[in-house]
Amino acid sequence: MKSCRDLSVKRWVSSSVVAVGLVWSCASVAQVDNGSGAPTAGLLVGDIAVGQSSPEAAVGVAIENLCPQLAVRQNQEQNSAIQTDLFRRCGDLIFDTQPQTGSLRQVAPEEIATQETGIVELSSNQLNSIGSRLAGLRSSIQTSSQQVSLNSSQPGLLAFNVNGYGTGAGDDIASSGRLGVYINATIGTGDKDQTANESGFDIDSTSLTLGMDYRLDGGAFVGAALGLNSSDSEMSNNGGDVESDGVSLMVYGTKSLNDRLYLEGTLGTGKYDYDTSRNLDYTARGTAVSQTALASTDADMTFASFGFGFTPNSRQGEGIQFSYTGRLNYLDADVDGFTERMSNQGASGFGMNLELAAQEIESLTSVFGVQASKVFGTSSGVIIPFVELSYIHEFEDDPRTIRARFANDPFSAGFNQTNGAFPSGADASNNGQSVPTIISLVTDAPDTDYFKFALGTSGVLPRGKNWFVSADTTVGLKGTAYYSVTAGFRGEF
After folding, report:
1. Would you give the DSSP letter of residue 195?
2. Residue 377: CA atoms inside 13 Å, Cβ hemisphere, count?
3. Residue range 124-165, pLDDT digits in tens
4. Model pTM greater than 0.70?
5. d(CA 149, CA 231)
């Protein structure tokens, strides 16, 4: 490496800025793998030791590649005011005499990984809502059929229920129209622990489903539904939050192949709006930064589910009824890229806003479940409590890479490196080569295998009315917990 004296400085903007730039251009390049942008083992960002694939390392590599180049532009009076702030804040992070890894962590946009959690949870809520609706339809058909059988003096658990209804009990339950309308509501809450790659957060979500379905001959139903969804993820350590609101449209159907086996499917599409805020609140080299990076973006989502169910003994007896289900769930979401804006323009740190690349999120899960239920007759209808355990396997289990760049970086555009190069005096071996200044964040890999436990009850009332309420929780997710409650009501005409 050549001496710093080899660098030519055209003009001194200020002694402090130039001193930082000159020292930087000689010292920083040794701390990264030149030309690749990948951190070396035991990477030091200034005096801060960071993990090789951590968000701190991703930011450290970017600023140690970017800021020596900005130093040359600064000496030549080519930087704008916002680029000058970016250059100075980089110097503060590198040369802080009391370095804190939390400062680098705040600059990194790892909070954006929360968007994936929100999208997956909201699509899951919608699929679960439709699944609950289809289960209610099948319960209504099966229970109505049994009530009619009871009028023919067939023995069984519901025999005493006939007395409550009178002679026409089964007919009263079964006599309903083909068209049904319903409303389902889901409230969910959960949290995720902070990891080496992602921020921790608390999430609250709500989903409302309004639907209409039609009963065909032969034990089949088809329907359509509108879903309204929202979620709010609050980052740990006052890191900010991610809010989403969206609407989805779904079509679905179920078909009984015989009295034991059925098929069902759902296809949906959705549009979501995201509002994100990331708090930068730190002090480095005596300069306090207190900014909130604000942004908005959209996401388009397509999801589908196809499955089957099998009941070994289709006739409800006095014992517990078991049924088995299996299905594939698929999700594809495209999140638009966006550029942040800082809350305090002109204040320290207003040049640290980022531009995020577009993201694609995919999920493919298989779900196998077993449900135990029992039918109880009352004077006003039928109640069916149930408990269910499902095993879920995620096939798309690779970590994602979130790409970001400093929005005021003059050496990259559209996430393609342009003319960035170390000055000739800094590293002759790298002279004239493009030096990466892109921030590449690696997310946690999704959990491959976990379980969902649910319990609840449904009811079948006269003239095609039915209702349900259920609660579920996930089991086996690393550092993550999620709980939800769903309730719904349907009437026929």
Report:
1. -
2. 23
3. 877 877 877 777 666 655 544 444 333 333 333 233 232 332
4. yes
5. 46
